[in-house]
Design goal:
Blueprint: E1 2-14, E2 18-25, E3 28-34, H1 40-44, E4 51-56, E5 61-69, H2 78-94, H3 102-116, H4 121-135, E6 156-160, E7 164-168, E8 176-177, H5 178-185, H6 192-207, H7 216-226
Parallel strand pairs: 3-5
Antiparallel strand pairs: 1-2, 1-4, 2-3, 4-5, 6-7, 6-8
Helix pairs in contact: 2-3, 2-4, 2-7, 3-4, 4-6, 5-6
Amino acid sequence: MQSSLAFILHSRPYKETSALMDVFTPQGRLRAVLRGARGKLGSVARPFSALDIELRGRSELKTISRIEPAGEFNFLQGQALFCAMYLNELLVRLLPLNDPQPVLFEHYRLSIQGLAHGLAFEPLLRTFEWRLLEQLGYGFSFTVDIHGQALDTQMLYRLLPKSGFEAVSLLQSGVFLGADILALSAADWQQPSILHTAKRLMRQALAAHLGGRPLMSRELFLAQKGSK
């Protein structure tokens, strides 16, 4: 038996009345079955709000034997909802099962709270993306290149997602100015240009690990914007 603070990342119907869920806990992303999900228990198992759950079973697929609210309900709507869906999809796509992630769990919890309380979306998303890459072992330096040389503010660099930045001599698609990369190391989100650079950079860095499949949350957000 295992009790834990948890968030529901994804849920889908399973058999007649159950749901198969991806659950995020400090012990990592777990897969579990919630029986009676179409009844009262299902109304408790809402995404984006902290839950207190009890898991049973020795196999990789657990059973949720108890589920209760833990703390405030995070009500999300509009762009905040799409941002939270994006965070969930990143975790489902990139986190291996049963890999303890206490630091990332706490950062996710604070990010969801920030979205629920109306904090600026872009800094939250970019910071979470970077923390996710770091915790998965895919981080890289913002101050030196892949050869250990300090970045030059006037030089251009391309990102090699699995190793870091490499200097290039010619302007080409997707490159970054050294000064912009160095500014990212200070995380000065007050500058719109830095937010734009961070978005381009994180998109390149994540694409290398997402396997070419598009993110559904991003497509839903773009479709929703286009319908207005």
